[in-house]
Amino acid sequence: MTYPAGRTLSELEHNLAAIQQRIDTACRRASRDPSEVRLLPVSKTVDEARLRLAYRAGCREFGENKVQEAQRKAEALADLTDLRWSVIGHLQTNKAKLVARFASEFQALDSLRVAEALERRLEIEDRALDVLVQVNTSNETSKFGLAPEDVAAFIRQLPAFSRLRVKGLMTLAIFSDDPTRVRPCFVRLRQLRDQLREQLPDGTSMDTLSMGMSGDFELAIEEGATVVRVGQAIFGPRPLPDSYYWPDADQDNG
Ligand SMILES: *Cc1c(COP(=O)(O)O)cnc(C)c1O
After folding, report:
1. Which residue in 237, 250, 210, 166 sits closest to 61, CA to CA?
2. How far separated are the first and last CA of the chain, in Å rounded?
3. Which pLDDT band holds residue 50 (cuts at 50, 70, 90)?
4. Is 9-240 a CATH 3.20.20.10 domain?
């Protein structure tokens, strides 16, 4: 996979327009309305100056995998008051207080301990947070996320956390260039969402399916994604290997 550079305002505008066009085309193929699909630009490793260009190019939210990096940027860009931050990577309980302070959304909820820590900190900040439950749909590539069979029982516990607004599910597909291995991960998440919808606790909704990244977002849209998390196809190739973010990524590649 090669990605275009995304350093200047015009490169960023160009990349964003190209991705929106690919989203539209994938939606048309799947008889879906493009307005159902939210593009979440993923800005990890991208510096503040380039984020300001992306803002000028129209971005009003950014996704970050690591909490401290996200918080640093949120502070540096605090003058852009309509900018929202989504934390999309695994969270340790001791970082919950940072998320509670600045994030609008947390996409990687996978334990009650983290839910408890977030709830406590959100109360202190008097804030609420949109959350997605992370599901491991690939069995092997990621040690993060709940096993699909554990999600229903987990979701039944979440109404106890009044400051967490449960919106749906998130997954990372297997790291592979082979669509016949990637697509089943997306299908699994959608089917799980459809099952869960029939037995949801009050105050929980399951509309959001966050799945698909630079290399596979069109497949994900065909299978029902409502959020695609796209980094490199907007900002250009990343210097850090994926194994920095997902402990087992590299050996499963290919
Ligand atoms: C980095 C990241 C993405 C985006 O990956 P790209 O290859 O840059 O599109 C999506 N989801 C998560 C959880 C990430 O950490």
Report:
1. 210
2. 11
3. very high
4. yes
Instruction: Tell me the CA–centroid distance for residue 213 and ligand 1, in Å.
Output: 6
Q: Which atom of ligand 1 is found nearest the CA of 65?
A: 15
Q: Are 192 and 169 contacting, i.e. CB atoms less than 8 angstroms apart?
A: yes
Residues with CB under 6 A from ligand 1: 42, 44, 65, 88-89, 172, 213-214, 229-233, 245
What pLDDT score does 181 carry? 95
What's the average model confidence in pLDDT over 225-232? 98
248 pLDDT band, cuts 50/70/90, is low
Burial class (CB in 10 A: 0-12, 13-18, 19+), 111: middle
> Probe ligand 1: pick from 87, 176, 229, 253, max atoms within 8 Å of CB?
229
What ranges do the domains of the chain cover? 9-240
Closest CA to 42 of 11, 73, 76: 73
pTM, full prediction: 0.94
231 C-alpha to ligand 1 centroid (Å)? 6
